[in-house]
């Protein structure tokens, strides 16, 4: 049996040119590619390469399949959109390793970073993450509401810029509304709020609004939500639009 | 006068293969490249391309120079290590635009994301950013200590994983020690703590320790500090080392 390996790879936000050279090379070198179907579909079919596309919400099962393939000697790429370490497959693989077949611990497992959605969204807007920020996922059914509420409140009170991944939950559609209720209790009504949909992919749409005017029901599975700090501001562009950024120094521009 | 433009580009953590294809193409297409000298030094010299290397801590001056070059008709690349939107040049450029020559607002300014240091460090370790996290810069002399203390305390109490950029300050060498004093007052002594130096560059060194044993004086200008949540854990590898990850679900593995 030859020594298999797993490369956990970030494909970036969508287009090929937002992948790193390393991610591209590693995916091409794999015998097996494992991932959520829409991410697999982004990749060109290569002769001799096997593609194992799976449904959403089966991360652990997908991780175990990849580990078994590697244990059998295969070179396996596990692909995620964005960065694999931010609310994505890397944690699922290590969770599977911790709980599963002890032989999995002998495998070579390498994580290849990518451009996470928040970075792609921030780049499109200007520089809203130019100062301290907090990043939360709202996707997980296993995260108790008390913990979400505690973190949202703490980050809002400490005036972090906030990025929310996976704001739309099928099983908890009210969750994003509850989060916005908390935010409105702490942050100013004029706080810049952005719903960024499918950024850098077909169908990209960016809604820039304020906390007071925000309608959280526009969030879907491909939305990232950004909520500014008290310092996050608009700069008018010559073309009638605006850039959004958070100054590097706190209080300097007040 | 032809219409100049500015591309604000993230070069990633160091090696060329951790750049995106887009970043590489945009830098090659520029007539002028503006940036902090060590980032400029990473790039191959191209015939006909002018390089404007500057010292650290002159971000605003550097941004104004780039804007003036673009206003004169040049295609200008402003380069940052990592991602330009995370404690880097993008915010400086928009700050300069907001305060400066109104004609700068008519320029085409585009931000090209890159792999930020925290993502490169996380990939090396496993998946420590697999759950909610907070990101703070300690570099800025203009950020009052009260605000730093408030944010550090809030993020620690709400059990975020925490990433600290620019932990070593020449003018405030005691700052990182004060931050650790706060962390130790809130988080458990066994909390996983990592000092990651020059990750993916020559001289890379990663010190994994606990909050109780951490010596913050090892942090230098190329260090990123990660402090885990109560759930961040080690998984023993077959080779005697370990991976570090934060489970996707809060409380599930307790």
Q: Could you walk me through the main structural features you see in this protein, from its secondary elements to its overall organization?
A:
The structure is a homodimer of 254-residue chains. With 254 residues, chain A is α/β, with parallel strands linked by helices. Chain A contains seven helices and 13 strands. The first copy, chain A, has helices at residues 21-29, 37-40, 59-71, 89-99, 117-125, 145-157, 175-186, and strands at 5-10, 32-36, 50-54, 75-80, 108-112, 126-127, 133-137, 161-165, 192-197, 205-210, 223-227, 233-236, 242-245. The longest helix of chain A is centred in the N-terminal third of the chain and has 13 residues, at 59-71. The first copy, chain A, is globular and about 55 Å long. The termini of chain A are far apart. The model of chain A has no long low-confidence stretch (mean pLDDT 94). Chains A and B meet through helix 1, helix 4, strand 5, helix 5 and strand 6 of A and helix 1, helix 4, strand 5, helix 5 and strand 6 of B. Strand 7 of chain A pairs antiparallel with strand 7 (133-137) of chain B.
CATH topology of the largest domain in chain A: Methyltransferase, Cobalt-precorrin-4 Transmethylase, Domain 2
Strand content of chain A: 25-35%
- Which CATH first-tier class of the largest domain in chain A would you pick? Alpha Beta
Distance between the termini of chain A: 65 Å
Whole-number mean pLDDT of chain A: 94
Shape of chain A: globular
Q: Whole-number radius of gyration of chain A? A: 20 Å
Please write the string of helix (H) and strand (E) elements of chain A.
EHEHEHEHEHEEHEHEEEEE
Determine the CATH superfamily of the largest domain in chain A.
Answer: Tetrapyrrole methylase, C-terminal domain
Structural class of chain A: alpha/beta
User: If strands are numbered along the chain, what order do they take across the biggest sheet of chain A?
Assistant: 3-2-4-1-5
Poorly predicted segments of chain A: none
What's the number of helices of chain A? 7
- What's the domain count of chain A? 2
């Amino acid at each position: 049996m030859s020594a298999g390996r797993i490369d956990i790879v970030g494909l970036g936000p969508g287009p090929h040119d937002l992948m790193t050279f390393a991610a591209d090379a590693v995916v091409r070198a794999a015998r097996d590619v494992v991932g959520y179907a829409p991410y697999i579909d982004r990749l060109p079919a290569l002769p001799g390469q096997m593609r194992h596309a799976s449904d959403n919400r089966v991360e652990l099962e997908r991780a175990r399949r990849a580990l078994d393939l590697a244990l059998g000697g295969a070179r396996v790429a596990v692909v995620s959109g964005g960065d694999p370490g931010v609310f994505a497959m890397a944690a699922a693989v290590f969770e599977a390793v911790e709980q599963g077949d002890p032989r999995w611990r002998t495998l070579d497992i390498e994580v290849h970073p990518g451009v996470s959605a928040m970075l792609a969204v921030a780049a499109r807007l200007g520089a809203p993450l130019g100062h301290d920020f907090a990043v939360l996922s709202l996707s997980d059914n296993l995260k108790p509401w008390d913990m979400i509420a505690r973190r949202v409140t703490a980050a809002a009170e400490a005036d972090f810029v906030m990025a929310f991944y996976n704001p739309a939950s099928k099983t908890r559609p009210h969750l994003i509304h509850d989060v916005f209720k908390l935010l409105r209790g702490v942050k100013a009504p004029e706080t810049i709020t952005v719903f960024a949909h499918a950024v850098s992919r077909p169908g990209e749409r960016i809604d820039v609004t304020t906390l007071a005017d925000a309608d959280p029901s526009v969030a879907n599975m491909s939305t990232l939500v950004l909520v500014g700090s008290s310092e996050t501001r608009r700069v008018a562009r010559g073309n009638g639009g605006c850039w959004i950024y958070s100054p590097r120094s706190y209080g300097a521009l007040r």
